[in-house]
Specification:
The chain is α/β, with parallel strands linked by helices. Helices cover about 50% and strands about 10% of the residues.
Length: about 425
């Protein structure tokens, strides 16, 4: 029988909740403050915790934080008597599953407990090792290419997220790989045939978003229903109009337990919340597990591996592109470029060259002009102005102190002077 620990300093609340909850199939236990509740949770372990926010000496928010530190899968529902949602939103910020405002309806309470139990069962059953966990880990390692510290950190984050059902917010510049991470997380689902519903909020019209996302009565529209048992990906979540954001909160309260929710954005969403341009409650519901994807310019050391990865997956009518080789001078130029389009831009550049080249060896002269024309890349005007040493030093820095690569760049550039 599923169990719920009820935490409130009023015994009358204990009696009322016990009379309401027990007949629905939950075993109930009680604590009168946060300290006693934490000790009892550690000793007995409960499926759910239903805690009042206003208690002494340990209040509900502090209890929530302590429970999450002890057991990240703890499902905590906060009860609040305040008229505003400020305290409730604070609870969401620290990982509460949901909140209930007193006085609440019995049907609302039971529905929230049942949703919380579904999440708890998913979290606990998916922590056990087995074949279902090997694939996401391998997928993360094979698709998130690179050994740079920023990418290694990202791979570890994704592996951890694969075992969680909480909403994930992927933040990063355009082209930084947010869709790839979402696909990896989806692959962590229990079934490889589970639905993957991808919605671009920036490209969808408001009527379509209302029909597809919101539906009637907070039950969710067709897109939400299609995602049941799988993943709902909302790209460019910041593009949702504020009225739609408020209505989406209601939908997620009723449905988010039935699918994995992944949202993406290329803006600082927390700053947008502070400026009043994004719903704070929606933010804390979707940002339970935020991930910041590093831009490619911060992981230039990964470019040689990425070039090989992209070229090997490109079709060429003359030869197998897995044998294509980019020379040291070509890689040096690619490594020094700032890549405003990140991985997407690098993929386009590499695949176009690998697909159209009639030779297996790619030099810097075959790269697009724009990757040579860097603000920070040394120019031959420095050399012609008699600043040969300064030019040589800047080339070396641009090549990340790879002397062999720098020598080849210098040979090519100086050779142009004939």
């Amino acid at each position: 029988m599923p169990s719920v620990l009820i935490v409130d300093d009023l015994l009358s609340i204990h009696e009322m909740l016990d009379a309401v909850i027990q007949p629905t199939g939950f075993a109930t236990a009680f604590a009168t403050d946060g300290e006693k509740a934490l000790a009892r949770y550690k000793a007995e372990k409960f499926d759910l915790v239903l805690a009042d926010i206003d208690m002494k000496p340990m209040d509900g928010i502090t209890l929530l934080k302590q429970l999450k530190l002890y057991d990240p899968t703890a499902v905590v529902i906060i009860m609040t008597a305040y008229a505003s949602t400020e305290s409730a939103i604070q609870a969401l910020k620290f990982g509460a599953f949901d909140y209930l405002q007193k006085p609440f309806r019995v049907d609302e309470l039971i529905a929230t407990l049942k949703r919380g139990l579904e999440l708890r069962l998913f979290a606990t059953t998916n922590r056990a090792p087995g074949p279902a966990k090997a694939q996401p880990a391998a997928d993360a390692t094979s698709r998130l290419v690179g050994d740079s510290p920023p990418n290694r950190k990202l791979v570890q984050q994704v592996k951890k997220l694969a075992a969680a059902r909480n909403p994930v917010l992927l933040q990063g510049e355009p082209g930084s790989g947010k869709s790839t991470v979402a696909e990896i997380l989806h692959a962590a689902g229990e079934s490889p045939t589970s639905p993957f519903v991808r919605i671009d909020c920036a490209l969808s019209t408001e009527p379509d978003l209302r029909t597809g996302l919101l539906g009637q009565g907070g039950a969710g529209g067709e897109w939400v229903k299609q995602a049941k048992g799988g993943t709902l990906l909302l790209q460019h979540i910041q593009a949702l109009a504020l009225p739609l954001q408020a209505e989406l909160v209601s939908v997620l309260r009723n449905t988010a337990h039935s699918f994995r929710l992944v949202c993406t954005t290329n803006v600082d969403l927390e700053k947008l919340v502070e400026e009043g341009g994004f719903s704070d409650e929606l933010f804390y519901r979707i940002a339970a597990l935020p991930v910041l994807l590093p831009p490619l310019r911060e992981r230039a050391a990964d470019i040689p591996q990425l070039v090989q990865f992209f070229s090997a997956r490109t079709a060429n009518p003359f030869f197998d592109t897995s044998s294509v080789e980019f020379t040291a001078d070509a890689l040096a130029v690619l490594g020094a470029y700032h890549w405003p389009g990140n991985l997407t831009e690098l993929h386009q550049v590499v695949s176009k060259i690998a697909a159209s080249s009639d030779a297996r060896v790619i030099t810097s002269q075959q790269l697009p002009m724009r990757v040579h024309e860097l603000k920070d890349w040394p120019t031959l005007s420095d050399y012609l102005a008699g600043q040969q040493k300064q030019y040589t030093d800047r080339v070396l820095r641009a090549c990340h102190n790879d002397k062999a690569a720098a020598a080849k760049v210098l040979a090519v550039d100086v050779g142009k002077l004939g």
